[in-house]
Amino acid sequence: METFKLEDARSWINAAALLIAENARMLTELDTAIGDGDHGENMMRGFKAVEKKLQTGGPPTDLPGLFKLVGMALLSSVGGAAGPLYGGFFLAMSKACAGKQTLNKTELEQVLAEGLADIQRRGKAELRDKTMVDALAPALQAFRTFPDGDLAGALMAAAEQARCSAEATIPLQARKGRASYLAERSIGHQDPGATSAWLLLQALASVSNATA
Amino acid sequence: MPELVHTGVMKKLINSPQDVVREELEGMEAAHGDRLRINYDPVYIVRKDAPIKGKVGLVSGGGSGHEPMHGGYVGKGMLDAACPGQVFTSPTPDQMYEASKAVNGGAGILHIVKNYTGDVMNFDLAKEMLQADGVAVESVLTDDDVAVENSLYTAGRRGVGLTVLMEKLLGAAAEQRISLAEIKKLGDFIRNSGRSMGMALTACTVPHAGNPSFELPEDEIELGIGIHGEPGRRRVKLASADEITEMLMDAIVSDLPFKKGDDVLLFVNGMGGTPLIELYIIYRKAAQIAKQRGLNIVRNLVGTYITSLEMAGTSITLLKMNDQLCKLWDAPVDTPGLRWS
């Protein structure tokens, strides 16, 4: 895999929808422990809305168009905090790749960085607040530092880092989102948002793996 | 102590978890169609006579499961529109945007937003979309829950019982055709004048989750509960109604603080699964404590107004009152959930 193309992005979204559906129960259980028990259901509804939009509307013909469709569908279907955060993530990525048909590693890194920046701007979360940022920021760092050009390897490194970082939210005390109301009782549970963020990156890596 | 084992059996008067919100709205339409209109795509509940020319449009919304809030408070003297999300999940910006457009009578729109991460973000997006269309829009936050102690390390205090009072008082003010800027100012004043705290005897079960939101041993209660089945601040041994009322009132009164000689509205609310007979036992003690502390209860509200599905428990809200707020409280209101003339 040398560059990231429209069909890769489509496969990413399909893989993400599948992974989210398979793990919806787990996400909801994690959210029941420290949130309000709906993250899996909400994410699944979101990706179903994305699939429906892809099937009914004219299919997007470029990367920005696809990311915009995904962002708008998530924004108007997920609700909660995850809706604006993941919706905004894809909308920011759409803006960041305006005019581009393909992305090389450096360009994809910039596009993902814009997505993460939007999540941080909207959610105002810092590292170690026990949120999706805890999975996304280290993953992006792993992607960035992976030896030049190797897109597939970098995406797999990012997914692996996201998995470890999501697990590393277990000992943290939540300082943002609904889990923060629990104060020290939020310690000892993996953050559901960091976990769904890992699933999205895992889906992205699976695409690069399949087409490597 | 061994963990309780889930049986996976959920006893609820529903047909299927994914139809809960839609079927509830269809029922509301059937019952209150004379005064409300329901829009299904995107979902919002709106006054049948909206938009009302020259009146600020009041729009609120939030996850479902808190009934009668917010949909039950749509009507004359209260909200113009409400946007219900899925159970305990914030609604989406397109709902808020369309609902706001539907009630825009030319005097602007006020969003009443409970301080939860999701609600705030979604209403912010809706606000941006409306402003891009040239609609004047302001928002008022409620964050009255004293159980959330340190806002530096949390998402900030939650909006709970005060939201009901806010919707009533601002609804009355809007009927008097006061301007958007004045309503916003009044809303901020009310926000800073009220405090609440709640407790739970039992957890509640979100329909699509199928299991209780937390496990509470037979002899324990959850203090500082929110309205989403999220566990509270701390767990204590079951105590008498009087002792529980003291714990809640102490936290509320010392927080604002409410001082000797203050006029207050005392609101005792049921969380959904608590009978009125118990709420009056709580009110009895809360009124005694208010008297001991020199607070004058000039208005009150007792009943089930902001809930957490079938959770058993109560919340107490105190709001500092003045002549203007008393007049607004007494003004006629005609909604499914609150009605007097």
How is the topology of this model organized?
The complex is a heterodimer of chains A (212) and B (341).
Chain A: E1 4-5, H1 6-22, H2 24-34, H3 39-56, H4 63-75, H5 82-96, E2 102-103, H6 105-123, H7 133-145, H8 151-167, H9 192-211
Antiparallel strand pairs in A: 1-2
Helix pairs in contact in A: 1-3, 1-4, 1-9, 2-3, 2-9, 3-4, 4-5, 5-6, 6-7, 7-8, 7-9, 8-9
Chain B: H1 20-32, E1 36-40, E2 43-47, E3 57-64, E4 81-87, H2 93-102, E5 109-114, H3 117-132, E6 137-142, H4 162-175, H5 180-191, E7 194-200, E8 220-223, E9 234-237, H6 241-255, E10 263-270, H7 276-292, E11 296-303, E12 313-320, H8 323-330, E13 333-334, E14 339-340
Parallel strand pairs in B: 3-4, 3-5, 5-6, 10-11
Antiparallel strand pairs in B: 1-2, 2-4, 7-8, 7-12, 8-9, 10-12, 13-14
Q: Taking all residues together, what is the mean pLDDT of chain A?
A: 93
Counting helices, strands and paired strands, the structural category of chain A is mainly alpha
The CATH superfamily title of chain A: DhaL domain
Largest sheet of chain A: 2 strands, antiparallel
Helix count, DSSP H or I runs of 4 or more residues of chain A: 9
Structural class of chain B: alpha/beta
Largest sheet of chain B: 6 strands, mixed
The counted number of beta strands of chain A is 2
How would you describe the overall organization of this protein?
The complex is a heterodimer of chains A (212) and B (341). Chain A is mainly alpha-helical. Chain A has one domain: DhaL domain (Serine Threonine Protein Phosphatase 5, Tetratricopeptide repeat). Chain A contains 9 helices and 2 strands, in the order E-H-H-H-H-H-E-H-H-H-H. Chain A has helices at residues 6-22, 24-34, 39-56, 63-75, 82-96, 105-123, 133-145, 151-167, 192-211; strands at 4-5, 102-103. The longest helix of chain A has 20 residues, at 192-211. Chain A is globular. Chain A starts with a strand and ends with a helix. Chain B has 341 residues and is α/β, with parallel strands linked by helices. Helix content of chain B is 31%, strand content 23%. Chain B is globular and about 55 Å long. Chain B has 2 domains: 19-191, Rossmann fold (3-Layer(aba) Sandwich), CATH 3.40.50; 194-340, Dihydroxyacetone kinase, domain 2 (Hypothetical Protein Tm841, Chain: A,domain 3, 2-Layer Sandwich). At the A-B interface, helix 3 and helix 5 of A face strand 4 and helix 3 of B.
